[in-house]
Amino acid sequence: MAREPVVYQEIGRSYAATRREDDRITAQIATALGDAATVVNVGAGTGNYEPRDRPVVAVEPSAAMVAQRPDHRSVLVVDAFAEALPFAGGSFDAAMAVLTVHHWADQAAGLAELRRVARRQVVFFFETSIAHRFWALEYFPGATALPSELAAPGAADLRSLLDVREIQTVPVPRDCLDGFGSAFWCRPEAYLDPLVQGGMSWIAQLPADVRAQGSARLAEDLASGDWERRHGHLRRRGTYDGGYRLAVAGD
Fold first, then answer.
1. How far, in Å, CA of 87 to CA of 98, rounded?
2. What is the torsional sign of CA 242, 57, 42, 249?
3. pTM of the model
4. 120, β-bridge pairs
5. What phi, psi does 185 have (nearest 5°)?
6. Average pLDDT along the chain
7. Between the CA of residue 27 and those of 21, 30, 31, 49, 151, what are the distances in Å?
């Protein structure tokens, strides 16, 4: 169960610089949480998307991530793993997990824990069959072979482990504030920024030389206009389907 904290102790040190909540995604998650009076956020990271209008307990094993939580966010943070939550059954009305399950060492055990401690589960995840078609993978192709990408659960996996009643598409707006994987789908220059790369686990986990080679190729294609010829049509779109989904399960 050591994969998640090891990853984020190493690559998560500048996470808060580019990973900010996007209000549109916040609203979608809040609607999915519904009338839940108490919430546990598992794999909470820096606390993005935690509701501010009700009690929240955050579960996060990475000290590097906890240290970047905003000072104004007065939430109890528990050092624990998703696979062994230190709470009695039914302790919360809802459990949320935001872009984290693909980093869990035992996803089945972690999702079973979400189901045990809360009557509703809200999971923000990505479908690799869609996400791995993203143009940036042309420049960083080794990312799809990372353990966290190979292990990323899809809707079918979640349906087999949770009582899923709805899977919602989470569209990525063109000006998305949260710098996750395909957030900059129409702003390719952002993928040359080391801070942006450091906030994306699928790039940050790559060897430094591989990141440098991919960045150099992208810079060349931007300078030559080749990226624009192949993908410039994206700049005219308002939203993008990067494969991000929200599973709502339980009561």
1. 19
2. negative
3. 0.93
4. 94, 250
5. -60, -30
6. 93
7. 10, 5, 6, 9, 28
